[in-house]
């Protein structure tokens, strides 16, 4: 019987040499120490053998069992270590390689300009109001005193949209969504329809005109400003414009002149020019020099517009102005081609972005 035990132990030792992985090790463990394992079965015999052999045989069984157990434990640790070493070898990192750089985004000059303009208008106590890119003819034209057949409708090179609304009967034709707004003045109308004076708002957004050349893109951005109360007049308009332009161009003084002009929604209407220096080729300096540069349109809100939105034009008056954001950004940051703003060229953005 003791020979059998030695034989079993010898067999274990032979097999143990061949163990390659943990699965194999487990198979061996079960073969020797499992419920029906070779050693377990030997141990079961202890109860049945003659008392005089019991002690020696029992001790030997236990001894071999312990040996095998500790051998298995040792093999297990060795295997784990080998796996770890292998992992270290495979996953080794070359610390001399250059680091992976994180691409850092830049803020587009238009977004940057919009943020700057917002800050300035908030500081002057204006409320920011948003509108919609898709508009109806009434908000874009009629309410702003641009009746059908008025040449100004053609001037705007409007993108019209085929109407898909099912609720055609509910709305008269003009109020159906049917075009991409050609200017942000639509926001004035929406706001005045819902709110009573005093009003002091500004709006910034995309506008669309079917036009594409070096100085026009089919989509661009406008800033719109509207003040309606009982007394605001051209002097206030000029004052606010002066503060805005000084803060925007970061300049001590911005000499400007008002030229009479025409917009259907303002009366009187003005085109505003600011002083600039164009003597150096490819560069415009704002606020100095002998040249004039047209920068925006403005005027006193036409009484008809107030009446169109049910505001009492005998009691209330006000002013409005509209500016192209791209134009402001080009002047402030010396950007020469308008189309570059929307080309999506990352090199351009890296240069002009913030
Ligand atoms: N809406 C005008 C345009 O886009 C600009 C403007 C706004 C002029 C407000 C006067 C007053 O041409």
Write a structural description.
The protein is an alpha+beta fold and 354 residues long. The protein is 42% helix and 20% strand. The protein has helices spanning 2-17, 22-33, 38-44, 51-90, 109-123, 137-140, 151-155, 185-194, 234-249, 303-308, 325-333, 346-352, and strands at 127-128, 134-136, 177-180, 199-208, 219-229, 256-263, 266-277, 285-286, 291-301, 317-324. Strands 1, 4, 5, 6, 7, 8, 9 and 10 form an 8-stranded mixed beta sheet that branches. Strands 2-3 form a two-stranded antiparallel ribbon. A hairpin with a 7-residue loop joins strand 7 and strand 8 (285-286). Helix 1 runs parallel beside helix 4 (51-90). The protein is elongated, with a radius of gyration of 42 Å. The relative contact order is 0.10. The mean pLDDT is 91. Phenylalanine is lined by residues 183, 185, 224, 263, 266, 297-299, 320-322.
